[in-house]
Structure prediction request, 329 residues.
Amino acid sequence: MIEDTATAGRVRRFSTAELPEARRVELWEDHNRAALIGLRCRLLGDTPFDGTELNLQLDRLQLARVRGTSHVVERPADVIRRSPADAVAVYLTLVGEAFFYHDGGVLTLRPGQALICDADRPFMRGFSHGLDELAIKVPRGVFHDLTGLESVRAPIVRATSRALARTAGTALRAGGAVDEPALLHLIADLTGRRVADPATVHLANARAFIEDHLTDPGLTATRVAAGIGISERHLSRAFAGAGTSLPRHILARRLDRAHRLLAAVPRTPVAEVAAACGFHSRTYFAQAFRERFGIRPTDVRKSATPSDFRPITGPAVAGPPGAPANDYS
Prediction:
């Protein structure tokens, strides 16, 4: 079943949940052929297949978030002839191991790794424990403009760019911001090629690092710069180019998180929310919150409906920073 999400009709969602079990694989193949890359799918065992895919067509890229039960997908020569992709594929593994067979051997992909391959060269991928990944289809012409390469001669495995995964995942969320220029430069950076606009990559990497460490009250420019491997001067320039500064960005993101927490778990004391979002002082937090939102933190709690009141404990207030299942869903 295909439906639009709340992202103004941009993101399309396909799920096998309400489809006849006997036709799920067939319809999953049909969907991927039309929305991403044509593949042949085979099951591992007798358990019915269950899969969900979010798709987003941008001006130059196609994005997908794919979740599914255990299965194998193949892109053999006959499928390539019938359904050429004329593209490079980037797969970012979020959960579960996967194998990748190609004419040069076999690779094992684990969470936190990315695979870049030519989508028109035969391959097989297997997910014995299911999959949860982000996929990006880069048209060959776009890839050439980014990197100067027509394709990749052999599959490339890299440590997943947190910034790339976060930027793609955000775009696929309902109401999420879409930053295609950042995605393009981050893909080029992942291949090891020199990018035309390094400041865009620096900014995306810094934002991802900040999100992963937002609850740390010791988050400073020195730490962010060291964390992403650039100088503080380059870091400052990257944020200045976006019309802001690193301290203002960190403050805004902490306040936004605090607002969400106060609305979602209103029984949590304001001081606990402030601390969970990296604030040392409750007084400063309350003042900054009112300046940003025009209301007090306690007003957000009072506006929550009784059905919103649900108990929470400890780390659940802030959530685990950098957890893929939360960050990219």
Remarks:
- Residues 2-9, 306-329 have pLDDT under 50 and may be disordered.
- The first strand starts at residue 2 and ends at 4.
- The chain is about 40% helix and 20% strand.
